[in-house]
Amino acid sequence: MINIFAYCVKILRGVLILIISVTCTGLLKPAGVDYTFAIEDKAERYERRARILTGSTEKNFFDKSTPMLHNNSRFQFTAAGCWDTTALLTIYTKLAEIDSAYIKDADRAIQALGHYGRQGSDCSAYTGEWSMFQNNSRGQVYYDDNMWVGRDLVALYNLTDDEKYLERAIVIADMIIAEGWVDLDQEMFTTRFGRAPGGELGGFYWRDDHVALHVCSNGPAIQFLAQLSQVANNGKGDEYLDYAVKSYRFLQYLERDIGVFWDLMTFHKDADNNIIGINVREGSSFSYNSGTPISSAIELYKLTGDEAYLEDAIRWSSSADAFFAKDSDVDGVKSFTDLPWFREILLMGYIDLYEFDEDALGYIQNMEDSINYGYENHRLNGVLGFNQNVIPRNWVSGFEDKDEMRNAAALEQIPCAGIYASLALFYASIG
Fold first, then answer.
1. CA-based angle 93:129:154, to the nearest 5?
2. Considering all CA atoms of the chain, what is the largest pairwise distance in Å, rounded to the nearest integer?
3. Is pTM, for the whole model, over 0.85?
4. Close Cβ partners of 333 (under 8 Å, ≥ 6 residues apart)
5. Is 380 found in the same domain as 343?
6. Is position 309 within any domain?
7. In a domain? residue 257
8. pLDDT, tens digit (0-9, with 9 covering 90-100), for 301-338
9. Cα–Cα distances in Å, from 129 out to 66, 352, 394?
10. Which residues have C-beta within 8 Å of that of residue 327, sequence separation ≥ 6?
């Protein structure tokens, strides 16, 4: 049950932030140079920045006592979505590799996710809708949200050997397979696209209305299930890997000619919602929809040794850098314009590839230089500590206006800490 006192404190704090943001907007201004600039070792410098931005994320968005994550730093009366909360778990999971003290914070984020737990269960699935009580949500299940959690749970298990993380990961894996999976007809794809899938294939729906199959619900599933297959203690390891491979075969059909991905594929359905034909591939190309295929390809390459997976990852990475890293008005600094959370996932893909292709370093550094420019030139001082260390969505051009300064969004700020945590771990790993 929710802590009523803590909830009242949160409301009062929200009122204070609202008053401050209305009356003191003019005090929001770029921050001065901080001491991280003088740290020569990149791993150390980026670790410190990750900690700084995580601290501001907690102050601006995360009420640890409730626990509840808010989607906006100005209006702290409503909960953020499950998606936002998964991003918070990712930060803590990465930082826990650096400092085990963050394990407790990861547990708090998992506890916060319990408020999205599906009603009438022991949290067999996370929904998109916050509930005041744990495991009491009637919201729609977004399978990709559950996959993001699953990936971090496997990472936490590998880090701690604590069975509670593995048990929860297995619950999520079994749920997405039982509820979100659909087998696909090989001949249907061979006829439509002129090339055979090379074996059985299928895919994971994006959400529980079972309308379309997305990159965002197959890319992370492949990586999650492949990783889980290596540690599962329920005798289903080979089964999880088999689903990952079949999903990968489907994912390849969403690649565009330019090497990035369509967002989704829709189908013709009968009266019982069974697939009877392929409709269209459509939607914008997002950077995270290149990031998860890269990571999934690398995971399958490590497990199988099949060079085709590595070739895919190399091609997709080169194409993603060309497509998403745009020239800017600042000489030598690339601009990324989609959601910062999407960029974090793409960076993780590049880092996964680097072990096998050193050309990935250039892609990593394009994003590294871009976020550094935002941190070093546009980061806010804040007002009385609120919105301190907030970075604009566009790292190069800066804040569009004062409204963007005072209305910091969780999915634009949380990933900045995650990106620096990834960079810290990466540079520590390569010395």
1. 25
2. 65
3. yes
4. 369, 370, 373, 396
5. yes
6. no
7. yes
8. 999 999 999 999 999 999 999 999 999 999 999 999 99
9. 16, 32, 28
10. 334, 335
